[in-house]
Write a structure and sequence with these properties.
three-stranded antiparallel sheet, 51% helix, eight-stranded mixed sheet, 20 helices
Length: 696
């Protein structure tokens, strides 16, 4: 029977992978046919800080053909970095530029040395007009050599600003009032292109997004691009190829297109309120998860200490089990709410006209979003606990056995759940994996706006599987492997499947995660093998893993050079040195995160604790089975690879570390071996938390 189940599971896994590989992405293709490119603008108005409502009000006298958002650089970045990144079509390190004015020759030389891949210039003849304090906007004219041209002064008093075909006028203003003044002074000449208005800094409470408007274009709707694949959102890097009329070498972005919509201002306002709701909901969701996890830890400690003293540890066990299950259920519950939010928002907008126009709607919608995620998590936890309910009267942490039963009788194994049922951690881990795969197949709406980790509106990852939920998925595999009777080949197959789904450009589009999962799959064949493999087999598996990982990276690069995978594939094909440079760059960014944020240490410390428990468990966990320790060590190794191969791995490991530490905690609560086999019966090796028998 078990063989039949395994064969059936393998067939289902293979069928799912085939469907994922062959899936053509019809929704994306249909959307691409409904879009049209934006004509090369004749004017670019850069606004230091402005909200969408202010931008729409300031340009009310103009025909707005497109309205949406652009992912701006983080708020701490200086004006010079924003202007140079726009001009180069890629993120530029502007540490060499100090102050608001134009830099001198020495600073420009350092700037070019710090950004060897940035190609400046490549724009139509450009004139820059800057408001007082915005003189650094003159860096927009920096070419392949020589200095930039100073910006001409721009004030409230002045004549008309004519727009001519084949030329570009860049206007830099600080706020909405200046935008209104400039908008009224622009005049179009025959053949001139539209006016693009872009915010330079994130709007308050809108993650890293800023307003983007197109005035006077010939296509009405929402902006989008191949870089984001999101309605109403484009990347900062997309502006340069749009100004130049097409993508060129050195660009990290793609030209902006317009997705047809009869009322772009109303559609953009609808998006604005939802982004505000996302920011509010995740601001509350993250500390809520941390609070539940802390309460679970305190309950577990209380159950262990009182049980060890023989004063009724079973009294705290239900609370510890419930809180630990809720901790594991919150990430899938949040993801389910985020995946359902677009449909709920469309339904609410259709039923209540003008509902999302009120500025206060963002707060109400955000609280409803969080409440839906919490309700889904509570439901998942309740179902998991019901399926894994312990037999009446049993207490794993020092509780008394039921009447008529002695401690010589075997305690149900942690791997199978209490009473031989499905184990709650395995069920919740499986639900999370299923939600991730289903959401990717549906277009990734939920993963683009998660309540845990960065979103598309932060500009970290516009589509696919981000580092945060990949870390949850990687650790969820460990939950499934540890608390079900899966062995090394099946664990490797599950991790390999995650690597393929995560690496495909129309699904996960995550090269670093795919490499991490593939290498962890190879490690599973070594660490989870029933016998210790020889050195030759270890080297062979390591070599095959590297080959498979490279194949996944190159295959993911078929998404094109504008994709995250495509850029990685270009570096990989350039040679081993460039490929190693990618890893060094990722590691350097992780080290900077550790240096600048104390919260970035949470994940690595959790992973280190999991690794130490796997190698040398402390007294309360000394009875953990070898299987649990092996799976825990495998998870710690995968999380270490996550740091090496991903640019924000240290923050992502806060997710995987949380799930990994739940493994020994649940095994301790369950009172079994945690390996899917019957718990030991003899007095020399009692189950975790159960006292050895004292009589014959």
């Amino acid at each position: 029977m078990r063989t039949r189940w395994r064969r059936g599971g393998l067939a289902l896994l293979g069928a799912a992978l085939v469907v994922a590989v062959l899936l053509p992405g019809p929704a994306a293709a249909q959307e691409a046919r409904r879009t049209a490119p934006v004509a090369a603008p004749s004017a670019l108005v850069l606004v230091e800080r402005v909200t969408l409502d202010e931008a729409l009000d300031a340009t009310g006298g103009r025909v707005r053909s497109a309205a949406g958002f652009v992912s701006a650089l983080p708020d701490y970045q200086p004006l010079a970095a924003r202007v140079l990144s726009l001009a180069a079509g890629r993120r530029v390190d502007a540490r060499a530029v100090q102050g608001q004015g134009l830099p001198g020759p020495a600073a420009v030389a350092r700037l070019r040395a710090d950004n060897p891949d940035a190609r400046f210039g490549r724009l139509p003849p450009t004139r820059v007009l800057a408001w007082q304090g915005m003189e650094a906007a003159g860096l927009f004219t920096l070419g392949a050599s020589g200095p930039a041209s100073p910006a001409s002064p721009l004030g409230q008093r002045g004549g008309r600003i004519p727009l001519r075909p084949g030329r570009l006028v860049v206007l830099a203003v600080p706020h909405a009032d200046a935008l209104r003044d400039v908008s009224e002074r622009l005049t179009f000449t025959p053949g001139a292109g539209p006016v693009m208005v872009a915010g330079l800094r994130p709007a308050p409470g809108r993650a890293n997004s800023a307003p983007l408007l197109v005035l006077g274009g010939d296509r009405v709707g929402l902006p989008t691009s191949d870089s984001t694949r999101r309605q109403g959102l484009v990347a900062f890097e997309d502006i340069r190829p749009t100004l130049a009329g097409g993508r060129a070498g050195g660009d990290d972005g793609t030209p902006i297109r317009v997705l047809g919509n009869d009322d772009p201002a109303a559609a953009a306002t609808w998006l604005d309120r939802r982004v505000g709701a996302l920011v509010l909901a995740r601001t509350l969701a993250i500390p809520l998860l941390a609070l539940v996890a802390l309460l679970a830890l305190l309950s577990l400690l209380a159950a262990w200490r009182t049980g060890g003293r023989g004063v009724g540890g079973a009294r705290f066990q239900p609370a510890a089990r419930a809180l630990l299950a809720l901790t594991l259920a919150l990430p899938p519950g949040y993801l389910a709410a985020s995946a359902a939010e677009p449909l709920a928002a469309r339904a609410a907008r259709a039923l209540f006209q003008g509902l999302f126009r009120a500025p206060g709607m963002a707060r109400a919608w955000g609280l409803a979003w969080l409440a839906a995620g919490l309700a889904a998590a509570v439901l998942l936890a309740a179902v998991a606990l019901w399926l894994d309910r312990p037999p009446a009267g049993r207490g794993a942490l020092g509780g008394e056995p039921p009447a008529g039963r002695t401690t010589r009788e075997p305690v149900p194994p942690a791997g199978r759940g209490a009473g031989g049922r499905v184990s709650a951690p395995a069920l919740l881990g499986g639900v999370l994996l299923a939600l991730v795969v289903v959401d990717l197949l549906r277009g990734g709406d939920g993963l683009a706006q998660p309540l845990l980790g960065g979103s598309a509106w932060d500009g970290e990852r516009f589509y696919g599987l981000g580092n945060g939920y990949f870390a949850f998925a990687l650790a969820a595999v460990m939950l499934v492997v540890c608390f079900t009777p899966l062995r090394a080949p099946w664990a490797a197959a599950l991790l390999g499947g995650l690597a393929v789904v995560d690496g495909l450009p129309w699904l996960g589009a995550d090269v670093g995660g795919a490499l991490t999962a593939m290498l962890t799959a190879a490690a599973a064949l070594v660490l989870l093998a029933p016998t210790r493999p020889g050195a030759g087999r270890v080297l062979l598996l390591a070599g095959l893993a590297v080959v498979a990982a490279v194949a996944v990276a190159l295959g993911a690069g078929l998404g094109g050079p504008v994709s995250h995978a495509g850029r990685f594939a270009d570096r990989l094909l350039a040679g081993p040195g460039d490929a190693a440079g990618v890893v060094v760059h990722q590691l350097g960014r992780n080290l900077r995160l550790l240096a600048h944020s104390p919260f970035a240490w949470v994940g690595p410390l959790q992973v280190a604790a999991a690794g130490l428990i796997a190698l040398r468990p402390p007294g309360p966990l000394a009875g953990l089975s070898e299987w649990v320790r092996r799976v825990l060590g495998l998870g710690a190794l995968g999380s270490a690879l996550l740091i090496l191969l991903n640019d924000t791995g240290v923050t992502a490991t806060a997710a995987s570390g949380l799930f990994l530490l739940a493994i020994p905690a649940w095994a301790l609560l369950q009172g079994g071996s945690g390996d899917g086999r019957p718990a030991p019966r003899d007095a020399a090796h009692p189950p975790v938390g159960v006292s050895p028998p004292t009589g014959g």
